[in-house]
């Protein structure tokens, strides 16, 4: 009790607020500073690099203290959130000038990684999602909300589907039920920033009520989510969390969309990683998104990212995109004009989301209005075009003429960065404001005129007018002119060599001018608030504009890419035949040295005669690139993009699976081989007739016998599957070439090379037939291995090949072929290898002794040998070696 009594009222207030937000760093506004106390101060000083001091509370108790000026909030806030801390911003809720005693304070905003709205916390080209996951026994619900744009998505499905969405959309924060903390980490790993909530929040009735109340509808049918019970729970949890973190102004969240698994081409997270769609694992590595993203607006960049991760499966929609891309390629002027106008619009989605919270500044409001004017021009161009899809997109645009004109008429041409700085409203909008401004700005001239008039009237040449905070404006007269002062002047202060006076006229003017600044600010803020209130009615149509402009931006980007990179229009069809002529890898070809052309390849797959291609070839010859480009061209076609090929017939595909490269998951306790088998099992268990499967070096993570056996059986399984998925199988097991003779749908191909002066040149061209060498030693030589090591490796290879030829028997060969793959006994061959030449002389010197020992050991019957006899024999052998 004594300690509590010793705390100042300010610290008592801080303690009470901190108790409500125990897991957040509390930024406590005190005057012009944000202060942190105790544990929060230690965190702030470490993360922000600010000074840590001690605050004494007038008693024995003291507390750590660290603070920064309030105007530096944006700079410091993002550092704390990026470091993974939740931050509660506690502001003064009253004007300190008008309050006696302690100022009322409260948390006005809680900032966490998933509910960040500050520009410094956001990447302009990617969404900042808050996700919620709802667990049930057999199905999971998941929702994603970007509070900075108002986009709200909901989905439900099995564990794998939710995992894929989380890995793809990469939410900044994931919330879920507290009791599932361990389960979440086991299923989805440790990569996400998470926060747990009480279980009562995850109740369907409560969640549905929250959603209906927010959207002000009688049901959720209009959004198509009324039967997504788990999804509704997760979406309700998101809304609850926003209110919990002091985000009550959510008028910009105007709709919710379902993410239906069946609407998009499925790629599991292994495929997204293996195809390097978003990243390569290297800091400056290139990826598909980086190559394709030539959008001109942040909205377009964010949408393109989603298109890469969620390609379409609806042929009509794919063809709409391809058709409009083709239209933009032909209409060059139209394309350039539209791109220019979209660029001028800026980030409409993020600007409009600032309106409900009144965090949008006058510059941004003016920019929004100018963006609406550009939108109207885009609308007119679209409606006048010859493309039906473009007309439909144009028809969805809304110039919002009334509000755009009102903003441009009322907001100053060069407005301040904050309304509180003044000067945001144009002249001629409010008579009282104009009068007050003329008083405030004309003040100096008026004072000069008073000074000149009074000097002439009294003859006091040195008369001057000044101001201080004690008694406002005054006239100052030096002692030499004191006798000339009129009787009506009132003396206020006597100095050593002068007197200070005030007059009724000065007093009257002072009241006008000092009140004018405050009145100007009050009128300006009132007019600005009213403007924002009117602007709120236009949030939904402006968001639709943002979505349409993002779509146009992506398709204009596709057209520009097609022209710049020589991409061609794919023929996406409902058949099952895949036929690429002159196909290229879109990422690798962008990173070739200047003047070097990418070597293109033809790829043909058909469930009938060429369902599985076994691809062999030297290491580093480009097998993996051929596999990846097949998948990337298929994916780009389903996005509605033109593709890097001379011609491409792309079958409508429902799933792309890849198993490319090997990576250990040692932290998860899994070896390379285990990871490989997990990923391959995921493929085998999910294939369909419209799947595209790409397998690279399956089985290399285990012994040769196991590897060949697994690879062989995988090919057999895929070939005999009723689904007959189109498959490309790259391998260094040349034994798999045998499968072409056994299975009608399997065809061998290899990547060509030529040998010049004992050097291998990779031609990177696909040709029918299998390859018999792996050229690993040549690759080792190219990597800079010592010449003696290379020479020895060639010697060993030659001996192994000779042994294999000697030991082969035609009869056994036939037997092996009938029963399965013929596998060399590598261990036996290695046993019979001769040692390196430099060691032969040692063995030659003792060859007779060794022969004698060998004969002695051969003649011994170990089963009849007693321990004593064994010791005697061993001693005898030892004697021979002396």
Your description of this structure?
By secondary structure, this protein is of the alpha/beta class. 45% of the residues lie in helices and 17% in strands. It has 7 domains: 2-111, 3-Layer(aba) Sandwich (MutS, DNA mismatch repair protein, domain I); 123-263, Nucleotidyltransferase, domain 5 (2-Layer Sandwich), CATH 3.30.420; 316-400 and 538-565, MutS, DNA mismatch repair protein, Chain A, domain 3 (Orthogonal Bundle); 431-518, MutS, DNA mismatch repair protein, Chain A, domain 3 (Orthogonal Bundle); 571-775, Rossmann fold, CATH 3.40.50.300; 786-839, no CATH class; 846-880. It has a 7-stranded mixed beta sheet, with helices on both faces. Strands 3-4-2-1-5-6 form a 6-stranded mixed beta sheet, sandwiched between helices. Helix 11 crosses helix 21 (539-565), helix 15 packs antiparallel against helix 16 and helix 16 (388-396) runs antiparallel to helix 21 (539-565).
């Amino acid at each position: 009790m004594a300690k509590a009594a010793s705390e100042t009222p300010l610290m008592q207030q801080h303690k009470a607020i901190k108790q409500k937000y125990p897991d957040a760093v509390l930024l406590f506004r005190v005057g012009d500073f944000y202060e942190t106390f105790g544990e929060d101060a230690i965190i702030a000083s470490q993360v922000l690099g600010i000074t840590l001091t001690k605050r004494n509370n007038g008693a024995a108790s003291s507390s750590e203290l660290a603070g920064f000026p309030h105007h530096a909030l944006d700079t410091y806030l993002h550092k704390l959130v990026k470091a993974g801390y939740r931050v509660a911003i506690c502001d003064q809720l009253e004007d300190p000038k008008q309050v006696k005693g302690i100022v009322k304070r409260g948390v006005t905003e809680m900032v966490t990684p998933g509910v960040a709205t500050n520009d410094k916390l956001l990447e302009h080209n990617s969404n900042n999602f808050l996700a919620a996951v709802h667990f049930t026994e057999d199905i999971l619900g998941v929702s994603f909300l970007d509070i900075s744009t108002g986009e709200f998505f909901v989905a439900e499905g099995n564990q794998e589907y939710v995992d894929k969405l989380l890995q793809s959309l990469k939410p900044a924060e994931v919330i879920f039920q507290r009791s599932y903390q361990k389960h979440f980490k086991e299923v989805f790993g440790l990569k996400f920033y998470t926060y747990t909530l009480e279980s009562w929040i995850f109740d369907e009735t409560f969640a549905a009520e929250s959603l209906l109340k927010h959207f002000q509808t009688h049901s959720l049918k209009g959004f198509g989510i009324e039967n997504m019970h788990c999804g509704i729970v997760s979406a309700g949890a998101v809304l609850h969390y926003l209110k919990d973190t002091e985000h009550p102004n959510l008028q910009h969240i105007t709709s919710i969309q379902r993410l239906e698994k069946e609407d998009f081409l499925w790629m599991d997270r292994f495929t997204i990683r293996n195809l390097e769609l978003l990243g390569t694992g290297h800091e400056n590595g290139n990826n598909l998104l980086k190559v394709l993203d030539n959008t001109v607006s942040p909205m377009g960049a964010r949408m393109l990212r989603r298109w890469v991760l969620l390609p379409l499966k609806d042929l009509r929609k794919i063809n709409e995109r391809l058709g409009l891309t083709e239209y933009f390629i032909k209409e060059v002027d139209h394309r350039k004009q539209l791109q220019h106008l979209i660029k001028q619009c800026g980030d409409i989605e993020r600007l409009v989301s600032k309106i409900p919270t009144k965090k949008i500044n006058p510059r941004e409001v003016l920019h929004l209005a100018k963006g609406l004017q550009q939108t109207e021009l885009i609308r007119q161009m679209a409606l006048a075009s010859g493309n039906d899809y473009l007309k439909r997109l144009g028809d969805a645009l809304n110039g919002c003429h009334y509000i755009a004109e009102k903003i441009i008429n009322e907001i100053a041409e060069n407005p301040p960065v904050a309304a509180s700085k003044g000067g945001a409203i144009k002249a001629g909008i409010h008579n009282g404001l104009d009068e007050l401004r003329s008083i405030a700005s004309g003040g100096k001239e008026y004072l000069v005129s008073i000074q000149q008039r009074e000097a002439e009237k009294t003859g006091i040449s040195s008369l001057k007018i000044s101001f201080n905070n004690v008694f406002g404006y005054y006239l100052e007269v030096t002692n030499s002119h004191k006798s000339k002062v009129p009787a009506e002047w009132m003396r206020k202060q006597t100095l050593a060599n002068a007197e200070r006076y005030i007059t009724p006229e000065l007093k009257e003017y002072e009241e006008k001018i000092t009140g004018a600044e405050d009145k100007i600010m009050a009128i300006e803020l009132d007019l600005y608030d009213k403007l924002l209130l009117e602007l709120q009615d236009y949030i939904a149509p402006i968001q639709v504009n943002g979505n349409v402009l993002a779509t146009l931006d992506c398709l204009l980007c596709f057209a520009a890419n097609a022209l710049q990179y020589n991409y061609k229009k794919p023929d996406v069809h409902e058949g099952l035949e895949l036929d690429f002529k002159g196909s290229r890898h879109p990422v690798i070809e962008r990173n070739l040295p200047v003047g070097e052309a990418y070597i293109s390849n033809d790829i043909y797959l058909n469930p009938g005669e060429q369902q599985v291609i076994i691809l062999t070839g030297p290491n580093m010859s480009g097998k993996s690139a051929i596999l990846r480009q097949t998948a990337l061209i298929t994916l780009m076609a389903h996005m509605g993009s033109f593709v890097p090929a001379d011609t491409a017939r792309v079958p409508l595909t429902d799933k792309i699976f890849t198993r490319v490269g090997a990576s250990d998951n040692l932290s998860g306790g899994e070896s390379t081989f285990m990871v490989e088998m997990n990923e391959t099992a995921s493929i085998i268990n999910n294939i369909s007739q419209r799947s595209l499967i790409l397998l690279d070096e399956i089985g290399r993570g285990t012994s040769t016998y196991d590897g060949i056996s697994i690879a062989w059986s995988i090919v057999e399984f895929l070939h005999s599957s009723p689904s007959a998925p189109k498959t490309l199988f790259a391998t260094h097991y040349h034994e798999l070439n045998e499968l072409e003779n056994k299975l009608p749908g399997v065809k061998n191909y290899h990547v060509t090379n030529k040998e010049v002066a004992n050097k291998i040149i990779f031609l990177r061209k696909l040709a029918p037939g299998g390859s018999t060498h792996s050229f690993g030693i040549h690759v080792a030589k190219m990597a800079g291995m010592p010449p003696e090591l290379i020479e020895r490796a060639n010697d060993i290879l030659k001996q192994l090949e000779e042994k294999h030829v000697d030991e082969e028997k035609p009869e056994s060969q036939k037997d092996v072929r009938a029963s399965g793959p013929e596998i060399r006994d590598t261990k036996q061959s290695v046993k019979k290898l001769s040692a390196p030449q430099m060691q032969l002389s040692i063995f030659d010197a003792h060859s007779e002794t060794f022969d004698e020992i060998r004969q002695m050991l051969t003649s011994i019957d170990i089963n009849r040998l007693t321990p004593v006899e064994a010791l005697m024999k061993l001693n005898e052998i030892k004697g021979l070696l002396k």
